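Here is one chain, start to finish.
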Amino acid sequence: MGINKNDFGMTRDGKEAFIYTLANKNGMSAEVTDYGATLVAVSTPDKNGRLDDVLLGYEDVTDYIENGGYLGATVGRNCNRVKGAQVSINGQVFELDKNENGNDLHSGFHGYDSFIWDAQIIQEENAVMFSRMSLDGEQGFPGNFKVSVKYTLTEENELKIQYSGKCDQDTIANMTNHSYFNLAGQDAGEITGHILQLEADAYLPVDEESIPTGEIREVAGTPFDFREPKAIGRDMGADDEQLRLAHGYDHNFLLRGGCMEVRKIAEVMEPESGRTMEVYTDCPGIQLYTGNFLENTQIGKEGVVYGPHHGFCMETQFYPDTPHHDEFPSSILKAGEEYSSTTIYKFGIRV
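Its structure:
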C-alpha cells in the first residue's frame, strides 16, 4: 500500500528521473515516471490470481529517450495530427513542428513526453501529480500554459488520469495518454484476439497521411463497427481502403454524447486471462490504434521484443486536425479558463 519513489536513470542533460509505484489492497499496482509524466507499468491479476504487467514499456529513462512509439506518454499540448503543422487562433497563424510528412504529430519534436515534470506525492489519495509550465511559443503554441497530470489508483482497480491547466493566452489544449495495453501481459505478443466494444456510431476516415478527410462515416456495415463486442483482429485484414492506409486501426471514433460528463465508452476483454479493461472519459473522441508501426527492434521491459499489433491504444481526445474543421468540437482553450479532462481505465476479471 502507499506510494514508493525510486531512481529511474539520468537524462542526456544530467537530470535525474524518478519512478513512483502506486499500489492498492487488491494487489494491483501502477508505475509512473516524472519523465514525460509517463505511465510505465500496470500490474493486475487474471482470473487465476496471477499478476501480470499489462502495459508495454521500457526498463529505464534511457530507453524512453532513445526509443519511439510514445509508450505510456502524456501527449500535449496537442495530441494526434495537425495538417500542414499550422493552426490559426483569432486570425493569427502559428507554425508548429513538421515531424511527420509535413504535418505535426503529437506536438512535434519536443512534446510533453520529453520533459522532466515536477512531481507531488498525494498519499491520502494514492495519487501522484505531475506539473510543469509550458512556456509561450513552446512547440509553436501561444501562451504560458500551466498544466498538470494526476494519476490516481483506487480500491476499485481504477487508474484515473486527470488533466488540468490554465493559459494566459487563447491556445490549443488537447491532451491524451498514449499507453499500449496487452491484457494477456506485456510479453504476450499480438492483441488481435482481444474483444472490444466501443460506444461509437461513426468514425473519421483519413487520407494517405493519416489526416481526417472531413467526412464523418457511419460504422454500420464496415470493419469499424465495434458497437457489439468483437475481436480487434476479426476484420483487420478486410478489403478496406482505410485499413490498408493505416496498416490496421489508427482512427478516431466519435463517442456517443460528445463532450459531456465522464461516462463508460469502451470495454476490452482478453479471453485467456479473463482480464477486462473499461474505459471512461468526458472527451468527444477516442483514437483506436493497434500498434501498427511498433518495430521489431524495440526492446521493452524484461528484454521483450515489441512488434506490430503487440499492444492497443485507447487515446481519449478531441478529434485529430480539429483546428481545420469548424464542424468538429473545438479544442481552443480561452485565456484564463480552466482546461480539465478525465480518463479512467478500470481493470477487472471475467471468469
